[in-house]
Structures are given as C-alpha cells and as structure tokens.
C-alpha cells in the first residue's frame, strides 16, 4: 500500500528530526508510536516525556508497567476475566484504590489524548503511580484462591489497558 509506505517514510523522517533535536531513542519511538501521524503533537509529547523521564515517580511507574505486562504474560494461560472485576473479592484497601483510580483516570486519559493535553496525561499518571507502587508492595497477585487470583489478574489487565493508551512506558529508561 503506497499510503502506508508514505506514512512509514514520514515517521522515519520525524524520528530523525526528534533525535537531531536531542531526544533519546526511547522517547522519540514512544512519541511516534502514540501520535506519529501528528508531527507537532509528537514533538510536544516527546518534550513532556523528556521532562519527566528521570523523575523517580516516572521510573517507578515505568517499572510497574513492565511488571504488569510481565505478570499478565506469565499468566496468559489463565482466564483473567478481563472486564469482570468483582470488588467483593478485594482483600485490601489498595486493591480498591487501584480499581477506582484506574476507572477514574481511563476516561480522563482518553479525553486528554483526543485533545493532545499532555500535561493532563502526565498529571493523571502521577496520581496513579503511588497507588500501583503500593499495590505491588502489599498484594500478592498470584493468590492461592483462584477467584481472588483471577480478580487481581483482571485488575492488572485493566491497568495494562490504561498503560497501552499511552504506549509502552517500560521502554523509557533513565
């Protein structure tokens, strides 16, 4: 398809321009993956990501994104019941907090992506980070009880869906 070849060429050119402006490979690649068809917005996203990439909270969030994806990959043979989260199976307050935070910020992130509001995206991620970090400190995802385990995997699947809205954060390294 000629249209796809033209888009690929333009993305390659934009990648080179972002690199020439001093953006790292990982930031340039993620920006293009999220919004590559809009060069100005890809630049603005790259600027925003570059401004937070070395902050501790962002690194913890990127690590959590990788951890979520890895746990789900290892559990791929198990039914995660995606979309079937049952709050009655939550055994800790942080599970409830994470569920409610994901439910609250997913539509915010969708709207922010549509309007290219990169500040709102970053502030939403900043709100999520302490909760997901606490979740991994306090909760054993692979619980012995299969219903609790499935519920927690479903929660992580929702978290992964949220992360995927803004690309693979795990690719951004200090």
Automatic annotation (TrEMBL):
InterPro entries: DALR_anticod-bd, Gly-tRNA-synth_heterodimer, tRNAsynth_Ia_anticodon-bd
GO annotations of cellular component type: cytosol
The reaction(s) this protein catalyses: tRNA(Gly) + glycine + ATP = glycyl-tRNA(Gly) + AMP + diphosphate
Top-level class of the enzyme under EC nomenclature: ligase
Keyword Cytoplasm: yes
Membrane-spanning segments: none
Compartment(s) where it occurs, according to its Swiss-Prot or TrEMBL record: Cytoplasm
One MF term in the entry's GO annotations: ATP binding
Domain DALR anticodon binding: 64-160
EC numbers, comma separated: 6.1.1.14
This protein's record includes keyword Ligase: yes
Source species, domain of life: Bacteria
Coarse class of the protein's main subcellular location: cytoplasm
Keywords of the record: Aminoacyl-tRNA synthetase, ATP-binding, Cytoplasm, Ligase, Nucleotide-binding, Protein biosynthesis
Biological process terms in GO annotation: arginyl-tRNA aminoacylation; glycyl-tRNA aminoacylation
Family membership noted in the UniProt record: Belongs to the class-II aminoacyl-tRNA synthetase family.
Record protein name field: glycine--tRNA ligase
Natural source organism: Acetomicrobium hydrogeniformans
Lineage: Bacteria, Thermotogati, Synergistota, Synergistia, Synergistales
């Amino acid at each position: 398809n000629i249209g796809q070849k033209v888009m690929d060429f333009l993305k390659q050119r934009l990648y080179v321009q972002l690199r020439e402006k001093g953006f790292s490979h990982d930031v340039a690649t993620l920006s293009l993956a999220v919004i590559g068809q809009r060069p100005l917005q890809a630049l603005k996203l790259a600027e925003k990501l570059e401004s937070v990439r070395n902050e501790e909270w962002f690194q913890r969030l990127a690590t959590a994104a990788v951890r979520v994806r890895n746990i789900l990959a290892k559990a791929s043979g198990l039914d995660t019941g995606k979309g079937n989260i049952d709050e009655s199976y939550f055994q800790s307050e942080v599970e409830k907090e994470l569920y409610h935070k994901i439910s609250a910020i997913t539509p915010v992130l969708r709207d922010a992506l549509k309007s290219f509001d990169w500040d709102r995206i970053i502030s939403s991620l900043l709100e999520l980070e302490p909760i997901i970090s606490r979740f991994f400190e306090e909760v054993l995802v692979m619980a012995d009880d299969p219903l609790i385990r499935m519920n927690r995997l479903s929660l992580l699947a929702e978290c992964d869906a949220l992360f995927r809205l803004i690309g693979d954060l795990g690719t951004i390294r200090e």
